[in-house]
Amino acid sequence: MKKHLLATALFASCFTAHATIVEMQTNQGTISVNLYDQHTPITVGNFLNYVTDGSYDGSVIHRSVDDFVLQGGGFKFDTDFNSIETADAITNEPVLSNVKGTIAMAKVGGNANSATSQWFFNLKDNSANLDLQNGGFTVFGEITADSFETIETITSLVHCGEIPTVGLNEDQCPTTTSGFNAENLVMINSVVVIDDDPNSSASLSPKENTLIDEDNSSDNGGGSSGGSLAWMLSLLALAGFSRRK
């Protein structure tokens, strides 16, 4: 798959970012995100639509994989996990690289243009895997330096399967998704825009995705990737969890 001509033009001019800044208030701390407005306008617009309509308020971080990804934007919770209502899927924009500290869109394995509401934070440099797989995963922002503390707090929690939990030990992991209580989950209380000036982060220098130029005709669709929704799609039907710390 080749990069879009628009992306090429962007990189040929001045590879800096101008960003709208959003703030996620979680029960484990604050995560601030600089959005790459000019580089991935479709994806940023889609994300901000979910922000402004309150879709992410009261949602949960439902997936945490050590040294890989931290994922949210898919579920709210009352007595069980309930999928967020989603708009139409968007066009993929794989122009930036999945390096540590970036936020990218999750999507369905085997369908490059299937991202809706779910996103994930890259916990390490995942570029060798995610920049090319399944058409490349669209990076659309990066977290601020002081947000890493909150990310690390979440990833260090006891996990039930891939779900980070609060106030549980390994032996207390529920055997079904309905066995959780809201206070046992990492909740995103709100996501708000704190600076909508697209020039607010002009000093950012996102890394270009160069792997997307490679021929990925043999790609298997990325079913095992951090951004794939395969794990998410099985979550509601999950009968039990493997336990890990």
UniProtKB/TrEMBL annotation:
<protein>
    <recommendedName>
        <fullName>Peptidyl-prolyl cis-trans isomerase</fullName>
        <ecNumber>5.2.1.8</ecNumber>
    </recommendedName>
</protein>
<keyword id="KW-0413">Isomerase</keyword>
<comment type="function">
    <text>PPIases accelerate the folding of proteins. It catalyzes the cis-trans isomerization of proline imidic peptide bonds in oligopeptides.</text>
</comment>
<feature type="region of interest" description="Disordered">
    <location>
        <begin position="199"/>
        <end position="225"/>
    </location>
</feature>
<feature type="signal peptide">
    <location>
        <begin position="1"/>
        <end position="19"/>
    </location>
</feature>
<keyword id="KW-0697">Rotamase</keyword>
<feature type="compositionally biased region" description="Polar residues">
    <location>
        <begin position="199"/>
        <end position="208"/>
    </location>
</feature>
<dbReference type="InterPro" id="IPR029000">
    <property type="entry name" value="Cyclophilin-like_dom_sf"/>
</dbReference>
<comment type="similarity">
    <text>Belongs to the cyclophilin-type PPIase family.</text>
</comment>
<feature type="domain" description="PPIase cyclophilin-type">
    <location>
        <begin position="18"/>
        <end position="157"/>
    </location>
</feature>
<dbReference type="InterPro" id="IPR044665">
    <property type="entry name" value="E_coli_cyclophilin_A-like"/>
</dbReference>
<keyword id="KW-0732">Signal</keyword>
<dbReference type="Pfam" id="PF00160">
    <property type="entry name" value="Pro_isomerase"/>
</dbReference>
<dbReference type="InterPro" id="IPR002130">
    <property type="entry name" value="Cyclophilin-type_PPIase_dom"/>
</dbReference>
